[in-house]
Design goal:
Elements (H helix, E strand, L loop, with lengths): L8 H66 L2 H9 L6 H16 L4 E8 L4 E6 L2 E2 L3 E2 L9 H7 L3 E3 L3 E2 L16 E10 L6 E10 L2 H5 L1 H4 L4 E6 L5 E3 L12 H5 L4 E7 L8 E7 H4 L1 H47 L14 H42 L5 H13 L3 H17 L5 E3 H19 L5 E5 L7 E3 L4 H12 L7 E9 L2 E9 L5 H9 L5 H14 L4 E6 L4 E9 L9
Parallel strand pairs: 14-16
Antiparallel strand pairs: 1-2, 1-8, 2-3, 2-4, 5-7, 6-7, 7-8, 9-10, 9-12, 11-12, 13-15, 16-17, 17-19, 18-19
Helix pairs in contact: 1-9, 2-3, 10-16, 11-12, 12-13
Membrane topology: Multi-pass membrane protein
Protein name: HAMP domain-containing protein
Keywords: Cell membrane, Membrane, Phosphoprotein, Transferase, Transmembrane, Transmembrane helix
């Protein structure tokens, strides 16, 4: 089981419970929830759009009615007469008839909170509050206030203002100070129909709450907010009275995608107005969310029942297997005196009996075969090490180097230091070392050879950087360079060269060494391959590869078209000798 993650049967049962029951169930709950949300949102959008269309039509009709309603008042003879002549010039009888008509007009429309007349003829103002008529008051500066001046200059027939709290402009006693009703003022400019003469103004304050009955169809749902906005972005109607009269905040309306926002453009006389419905997704999906949570609770119940079932099965069926597994792991730790026999007569009992027999046979063969093999390998490694490592006197080299340094001969000292490094490295001939250390050893060897031959040497080392981190047996590549100097460079110096390349491909470390120089026949290559001919260097490489990696490593020789010979070494990267440092 070495190299594999151990997973008990109990763990496997839990994993199966998770993969085949729990995970599919909760994925199904999530799928149903998301699908329900999409379906609910589509239905709500369609219904809300239809309701907005109906409310838009009702609002337009109501606004048209409220805009045209005063014209019926203006056409009354007693009202028209007072508008033309003024309040001060009319008789008491005519004034009383005017007041009766106005009171009747106001009483028929409970949504009208206040009326305010201005008579241009005598510059008087009159207030009507809930069917009560005040005494006229002088208003010489009436036309200087907004929006009357703009309407008078532009000859605008009517205008809808921004809603605000009811204002007692004329300070009359019939309007209580405690009245904080929010009203929508509609201004009418009164002119003579025939002559076009300007007669005065009528301000109609409509209670904003009157819009609520028109918007009932789109406001009855929980979590829904309906806002009526004019062309300037000012809120005309909202359930939250604090918002009325303020500019609409688009960012708060969107609320980071948590709301569904629908808009409906209104026509005359509410041109450029918008009816906006904001629905909270949290409220919209409440039922779907509650259903999902119910399914989650049921799923948790399934999980608990499944866990109990796994524990029972594990207790009854897997406990003997776990016990046997623990005994086997103790054997892996080196405890060979474990007794695996059991009283069970089923498959587990037979398995324990056979494993006990196998353990006894292994214990018998270890001393005779395994230990003997270890001894043989150690003897072979010691023999190969004695062939590769020269018996130089390391301490003597240090003494000679010190003398050279005192004598001022730094070149000799450098060569001795290089040789010392080579000797220190050579002492670890049966160890695994990074490829970069082997290349450092080769460079030191080449440095000594340069000093020996006194010329630039035609040697090229091309080993990829990622290869240099892997471990190989020490002194594996240096004999290739040494063999080049012995058989090629010394005999054909001007026509010889050496190239060493290293790469990793498909999990295999590959070294290619090409020694150009004296020609080598096919028969010589065969004898070298079989170890019959050639020096100890190449034979040593082949034998050490076999000792470390067995048949998983490869050592091949080849003829370079009569111009020398090449060596190819292949080492599996996943094996111990190919692991990274």
């Amino acid at each position: 089981m070495e190299g594999r993650a151990f997973m008990s049967i109990r763990t496997r049962l839990f994993v199966m419970l998770l993969l085949f029951i729990i995970l599919p169930y909760f994925l199904f709950v999530i799928f149903i929830y998301e699908n329900s949300k999409s379906s609910i949102e589509e239905r709500d959008l369609a219904r809300s759009q239809e309701e907005l269309n109906e409310s838009r039509a009702d609002l337009e009709q109501y606004a048209e009615e409220m805009v045209r309603l005063p014209y019926s008042l203006f056409n009354m003879p007693e009202v028209q007469q007072v508008l033309e002549n003024g309040m001060l010039e009319e008789t008491t009888e005519h004034v009383r008839a005017f007041e009766n008509s106005v009171e009747t007009y106001a009483a028929t429309r409970p949504d009208i909170r206040q009326l305010r007349f201005y008579f241009q003829e005598d510059q008087q103002a009159l207030t009507v509050y809930q069917s009560n008529v005040s005494a006229p008051k002088p208003a010489p500066d009436y036309l200087e206030g907004a929006p009357f001046r703009e309407m008078n200059e532009s000859k605008t027939a009517y205008m809808l203002e921004t809603p605000h709290v009811l204002v007692n402009e004329d300070k009359v006693a019939i309007v209580p100070e405690s009245d904080n009703t929010i009203v929508l003022p509609i201004q009418h400019r009164i002119t003579d129909v025939l002559s076009g003469e300007f007669l005065g103004f009528l301000t109609t304050d409509i209670e904003v709450t009157s819009f609520s009955r028109l918007l009932e169809a789109v406001t009855r749902e929980a979590g829904t907010q309906v806002i009526l906005v004019n062309g300037n972005g000012e809120i005309i109607y909202s359930k939250d009275s604090k918002q009325i009269g303020k500019n609409m905040d688009e960012s708060q309306m969107a609320a980071g995608g948590e709301n569904i926002v629908l808009r409906e453009e209104l026509g005359e006389p509410l041109a450029d107005w918008q009816l906006i419905k904001v629905t909270s997704k949290d409220e919209l999906f409440r039922d779907a969310r509650e259903t999902a949570w119910t399914n989650v609770v049921l799923g948790i119940g399934v999980v608990l029942l499944g866990t109990v079932l796994v524990l029972v099965v594990s207790r009854v069926f897997t406990k003997p297997i776990i016990t046997l597994s623990e005994q086997v792991r103790s054997i892996e730790g080196g405890q060979m005196n474990v007794r695996l026999k059991t009283e069970r007569k089923d498959e587990i009992g037979h398995l324990a009996a056979h494993m006990q027999e196998m353990l006894n046979r292994i214990d018998t063969h270890i001393a005779r075969e395994y230990k003997l093999e270890l001894e043989v390998r150690e003897s072979q490694l010691r023999m190969l090490k004695s062939q590769v490592n020269p018996h130089f006197l390391f301490n003597a080299l240090q003494s000679i180097g010190a003398v050279a340094l005192r004598s001022g001969d730094r070149e000799v000292y450098k060569l001795l230091v290089t040789l010392s490094k080579m000797m220190r490295y050579a002492l670890q001939a049966d160890q695994l070392v990074p490829v970069r250390d082997e290349l450092d050893y080769i460079n030191s060897y080449i440095t000594l050879q340069k000093e020996r031959f006194g010329a630039d040497l035609p040697i090229t080392i091309q080993v990829e950087k990622n290869v240099q981190e892997y471990r190989i047996p020490s002194m594996l590549l240096q004999p290739l360079v040494e063999n080049y100097f012995k058989h090629s460079y010394e005999t054909m110096r001007d026509k010889s060269s050496f190239i060493l390349k290293g790469t990793v491909k498909d999990g295999v470390i590959i070294f290619n060494a090409a020694s150009y120089g004296a020609a080598v026949s096919a028969e010589e290559i065969r004898l070298l391959q079989e170890g019959v001919a050639g020096g100890t260097g190449l034979q040593n490489i082949a034998e050490r590869l076999h000792l470390h990696h067995g048949d998983k490593a490869a050592f091949q020789l080849g003829n370079l078209d009569g111009k020398g010979f090449g060596v190819t070494i292949c080492i599996p990267a996943e094996e111990q000798g190919g692991q990274k440092a």
